[in-house]
Fold each of these.
Amino acid sequence: MKEDEKPHFKTILADFADWSTLSGLKHIISCTKHIFRLAWTAIFILLCALFGFFLYLSISNYFSYPSEFATQIVFEEPIFPRVSLCNLNAFKYASMSTEPSFAVLYAMQESYRQIKQGKTVTADPFGFQAMDRFEMYKNAKLAHMILSQQIPESSREMLAYEYTDIITECTFMGATCTSADFTSFFHPEFGRCFTFNSNRSVTRVGAMTQLRLLLTANAYDSRGLNWANLPSTERLGFKVVVHTPTDTAFFLHPVIKQPLE
């Protein structure tokens, strides 16, 4: 080939078909029989059409921004929560004077009661007479919590409220519950408290799986005197907290209360 001569188009196409990886193109160029050339041409066109079709599908699918969500609903049987309750009155005041372990706490409560009623006391170790009513009540509560923790546990148990004193009725999931379903603990302000421990899972909510309690707060002792409650207990009722089995009861507000007159 002379330097000024350019390669023929068929030569370029044949050369390209020889090293190209396009399916069937080499056979179209190199076939000597027209029928085979037509067959390979048809195959080549079909493959190009398929390529164009799948390319279109891929591009369309990309720009449609498809998303796949796998939703799995897991039903777990929840554990019934714990219910802790305390009487707002920590001890039975009518019997406190006969217990030597309660001597200091009883003296404080008596001093508070008399000064609250406007009486003058000769001995006022807690300084109630120099306080206004709100400050006196706040300090009486604080003194009660400090002094009650200094009383031996065996003595506290004697004047603390029993299960039957405050829980009149109890049903859970339609069955009667007993003291065995409760555990008790001591609270410095409210004395003996009780926690309902079902340790059971519930499958549904409603009246059939609820806990029902009838609580009784005795404002008077067996003689009908209003000495069953401590003088520093100015509300009649209970503190009730619903919490998880792993949490400790944290008392904030009484669920029911009534002023003592």
Amino acid sequence: NPFGENNGPDPTDADACHKYGISLAMEDRTDESLHWFEKAVQLEPMDVRLMNDLAVTLMRLGKLDEARTELERAGRIDPDHQDVKNNLAAVMEHINFRDLGVTPDRGQKDLDPDDDGSYRPGLFRDPNAPPKKKPKPKPKPPPVEADDGKPSPEKAAKARGEALDHAMADRIKEALPLFEKAVQLAPENPWYLSDLGVTYLRLGMLEDSQRVLLEAQKLEPEEQSIRDNLAALQQHMDHREQVKADKEAEQFANDILEVPVHTEGGKVVKVDPGVRVAGLYDDAEEDSDDDEDE
């Protein structure tokens, strides 16, 4: 076996493989150490410490792109790992020289850890040092729950809060569906019903406003704000009826002035607007005849 697994560490123990790889690396048996570092990472693929030392070995063998890939993956797992940061900076420096076709002043020895200044500190960790604690995985954001429309005080409060933001900014149309959603999620809440009733009122939907405000009043008969909203609604409804009555009276008067009152030779004679129309005042001419008889 070229890697000496028969005499080496337990191939199922990542920490043992890692320590054995370091011992080989310190003896300049880099090709052999690579195998053990790869096996250690294979056993513990999220251990940044192992990934860092595998990348260092790849650098020493001139496999710069593979080293960069390994270090970038380690950096995504633990962005604050200083050894990973240092080694990634080193490998990027060598890649830049390679891509520019420039040989560093220190030559290929730059990849030799015994050469002063060739590596950033801490490329290989002490095999006897306790391993760093694995970074805690970042908590995943909770999945977005589909709105099933079932009663939920929390969802209702959130919808009402968003609706109030719109309403206070005079975005009443945007607020309406959110108030409706709040009532759907908390149908027994009189305050949500009152808010929805006020929104209907502001949009001129008076019958809808009346319906939900009366529901709110049933739940909280003594609440003054609900009473006030109902009183305001009644004023709007009374005003609407008065306007309607005024328009009907105006139309009625116009229609009366266009009605023919008699004919002469088959021709229709219309009443002049300034002339009193017969029948508008009950028994007006009969009263006049009675006065003459007297």
